[in-house]
Amino acid sequence: MEVNEKQIVSLLRQQGHKITPQRRAILDVIARSDGHLTPAALYQRVNRQYTGIGLVTVYRTLGLLAGLGLICRVHTGGSCHNYLLRRPEEHHHHLICSGCTKVVDLAGCNLAAEAARISDKTGFEIESHLVEFTGRCGDCRQLALT
Amino acid sequence: MEVNEKQIVSLLRQQGHKITPQRRAILDVIARSDGHLTPAALYQRVNRQYTGIGLVTVYRTLGLLAGLGLICRVHTGGSCHNYLLRRPEEHHHHLICSGCTKVVDLAGCNLAAEAARISDKTGFEIESHLVEFTGRCGDCRQLALT
DNA sequence: CCTGCAAATGAAATTAATTTTCAATAAGTG
DNA sequence: CACTTATTGAAAATTAATTTCATTTGCAGG
Lengths: 146, 146
What we know:
146 residues; homodimer; Dna Ligase, domain 1; DNA-binding; 2 domains; 3-stranded antiparallel beta sheet; Arc Repressor Mutant, subunit A; 3-stranded mixed beta sheet; 6 helices; alpha+beta
């Protein structure tokens, strides 16, 4: 099930949120983007097309969407500036390039059994998990050779 | 192989770093601590016992130790303030309580095969990975019932 | 033990990301 | 169309971490 812009809009309305031009613009940019964006990058892109949208609004909208589970965060190893990204259809993991900080989605996740085992062993009620692989992408490895 | 304070000191010396009272104090606190500490928490503890050690020095020392691989970072889901923790003997993962932010180490890691598969598929040269489970610990679940 | 130099320290300033405050504005219900 | 309430944007405030720089200090070599 692919979550499209229309569905997001109606979900927002259901939850009592208003559909403002700013939110539309932000959603639009997120929907178009094929990758992952920092709040700042999103802000820049939004303002390239639509004028006068504040960075604060970007943060607030991202918070709202994250709260509804429509987008999720990535922790990039280095300086811990967290990235925000388009929500893919299903649970997945991330692969981050240590050279260019590009983020690639990894489909498939076989940690349910592992989670159950951990739960048994520790008494924790497991709510979620985060898996990130870090490495150098093909492009960055090429560059290193020259 | 358990890394003790003496070994760390000699490793530092080997690498041409000086052993200052500040570093000793910080190492001492890290060695005593049974859990994970934020830079700020470490700073407080250090200054409870020894006076006049600057937060900057704490950051610098943590950076140094992390560079040498003697400590590692945890990304706590919520507000992305990263935690620093005592380096356990071997590669492991973390289990974080969403109630009290307690961090528990999880021994064992069977993701080497997974990493190899990802490398083949994506062309990335995998350098490292990060796995964190989040949930509610036994204590916090108890509290929720009352 | 003394000397000198490179490394380390601490205070303050700086950078950067994010959040809060608050008055003005606008969405959408009735 | 009016009214209520959520939303917005600018600026200020917070928070985390890093940089700068003058001063201090560890420690290697005499």
